[in-house]
Amino acid sequence: MGEKKQDHRVRFTKLVIRDSFIALLKAKPLSKVTVKEICEGAGINRATFYAHYADPFDLLHQIEEEFVEEVTLYIGNGAGGELTGDISPDAVRKILEYVQNNAEICDILLNSDGDLRFLQEITAVIGRQFVASWTASKPVKKAEAEYIFQYSASGSVGMIQKWLEGGMKHTPEELAGLMLRMTQRGYSDFF
Amino acid sequence: MGEKKQDHRVRFTKLVIRDSFIALLKAKPLSKVTVKEICEGAGINRATFYAHYADPFDLLHQIEEEFVEEVTLYIGNGAGGELTGDISPDAVRKILEYVQNNAEICDILLNSDGDLRFLQEITAVIGRQFVASWTASKPVKKAEAEYIFQYSASGSVGMIQKWLEGGMKHTPEELAGLMLRMTQRGYSDFF
DNA sequence: TAAAATAATCAACACCGTGTACATTTGTTT
DNA sequence: AAACAAATGTACACGGTGTTGATTATTTTA
Prior knowledge:
Two copies of one chain form a homodimer.
Chain A: H1 8-25, H2 35-42, H3 46-52, H4 56-76, H5 89-101, H6 103-110, H7 116-137, H8 142-165, H9 172-187
Helix pairs in contact in A: 1-2, 4-5, 4-7, 5-9, 7-8, 8-9
The first copy, chain A, binds a DNA duplex through helix 1 and helix 3.
């Protein structure tokens, strides 16, 4: 957001690099993707790559950051922004729709040869939202709370992974419903 | 198990390689660990490494396989082997104790720069156990079942991750109790 | 539109880890 | 002691890396 509009050339370059990179990630793990390959696939000089990214990891991180930004945006204003004590079904649905619309990248980031650090980051983001929602409405036994939220967040992300893996045969609404049901049921005993 | 007892030299070599490797993994991600480093740390010739492993990934996979073997072993005979319909608290406790006793490797495999494929494998193993336990005792609505089991398995593994991350300040019993409580509560509504 | 600024290209370079080969030395087993 | 297996040392070609400096192309500005 703080970024200036970039040169058309830069926009184009970053775009082809990104496309080539993702195409490669569909076929092999990050660790085996070379800068050379990326540039050949993008039809770009290798020196140009280094003008924008330190290495393929750096490139991946930038893609991941974009993703986190988008998701936290959706999380922030689910049904309108207010904390109801329950996680807003609307927020969950919106996130799932976003995942659906970006299935290609999501599958790469969350499944197969994805980045575990990133998975933990996403899980933490979602977990934090659970914490915010629940501690606002009900008192929490601190000791157990962390584990419970972690359980719920990991479980939710795991559901999303399975959903992606299976080709998203269910609607975001269906999945959101199931997810909230599991989550709230898990909490009901503790607070 | 099917392996013959190895030459003392081989045992020693594999041991020092493994130790050196793990030490490196504590400091940097697998993708940045070189064969050269491993051998220098192990005080071993590079050619010797290649006599036993194809590359560092291969080495990691062998370590992971050992781990999975152990865990599936504990899962199989929790309270004695029979399926009660509930997941045996004893089995869970034993797994957690194993994790505790091998905290160093577990932390490397499951947290930080670990292998996402491996995480999914472990999750699948645990999920399968949930399936076996529950479908044995109660009828399941097939459509939702997969997601629910995935949720529970991911949640459980997530709890273990957090436990490791925090330095295992709680006993295996405490964690096992919390885990089963979350899991069974999640199911109670569906079956 | 011309000039200044920025981006991409091209070619060349030293560097380093890789994987393999083969002869040699060390140790294990029979 | 002899036969075998494992580890060492050395050397090699190969390929990707990251950087540099000069050149060409494109965008911005004055």
